[in-house]
Amino acid sequence: MSASISVLLTLAVLVVLLFLSSIRIVQQYQQGVVLRLGRYTRSLEPGVQFVIPLVDSVRRIDMRIRVENVENQDIITKDSVPVTLNAVVYYQAVNAQKALLDVEDYRKATRTLAQTILRSNLGAHTMQEMLTDQKKLDDLLRSELDRATEPWGIKVTGVEIRSMDLPEGLRRAMAKEAEAERERKAKVIAAQGEFEAAEKLAEAATVISKQPEAMQLRMLQTMTEIAAEKNSTILFPYDAASGLASLFRKSQEQ
Which of 16, 24, 57, 103 is the most exposed place for a label (fewest CB within 10 A)? Predict the structure, then answer.
């Protein structure tokens, strides 16, 4: 009797262990791949899943977007300028079966392929294009890398060139060029201001020439502005008689 009870307890424990070993929990951000005796059988969605114990093995693939830093790449641009580039790649696995079965290590493969595409594509552009069309180059790199990783079940969502290290001599030359451009614009603006001021002065001279008394009023106004800044003694010629006579003639005419 006791022997049969022991056998039943043993069987019960084995059943419980087999049941527990058949349970697989797949996280929300994962997808499971079931291999039955070494062959792909099905993919597991997030949640509690059941498999055949001792027969099925489950590999979990992270489906979240990953960020990989592409190591510094030394390239030669189309116009023979040496440049060191640093970039980042954003990608995610969208097909767990392909990511597991079609490539040994999809993370390392994507990172290595990004380095190759970075060198081959940017080397076909000039330095000026790399400085002014960076968004266009980012989109080009993303498209090329996404096309190459698609058979692996990988979706590349973005590629960004983070930094571009130029030779010291080239940086100094670009700084001088930028400074010269700023000086040119400043001189053009100053010349434009002088031209507009000369036009206004010419118009003012035309108005004053029609009324000579306006010149005297303008002179007095200028003297007032000068004297307001500091104590000054100003000597200027003034014919009082001619001034009074002019004012008398105007009063007679009125």
Answer: 16
Tokens read off for 165: 């290290």
Q: What is the DSSP string of 39-101?
A: EEEEEE-SEEEE--TTTEEEEEEE-S-EEEEEEEEEEE-TTS-EEEEEEEEEEEES-HHHHHH
Query: What are the structure tokens assigned to 248, written together?
Result: 């008398």
Q: Give 44-88 pLDDT, tens digit per residue.
A: 999 888 888 888 889 999 999 999 888 888 888 887 788 888 889
- φ/ψ of residue 123, rounded to 5: -70, -15
Residues 132, 50 share a domain = no
3-state secondary structure (DSSP) of residue 233: coil
Is the residue at 181 inside a domain? no
Q: Which amino acid is at 238?
A: Y
Angle at 164 between CA 162 and CA 165, to 5 degrees: 135
Q: Is 102 domain-assigned? A: yes
Residues 149-197 have pLDDT tens digits of 999 999 999 998 888 777 666 666 666 776 777 788 888 888 888 888 8
| 72 found inside a domain | yes
CA distance linking residue 129 with residue 249, whole number of Å: 76
The verdict on residue 202 lying in a domain is: no
- The amino acid occupying position 21 is S
**In 3D, which of 148, 151, 142 has the Cα closest to residue 94?**
151
Q: Which residue has the tokens 């000369």?
A: 198
Taking residue 151's Cβ as centre, other Cβ atoms within 10 Å add up to: 11
Give yes or no for a contact between 54 and 44, defined as CB atoms under 8 angstroms apart: no
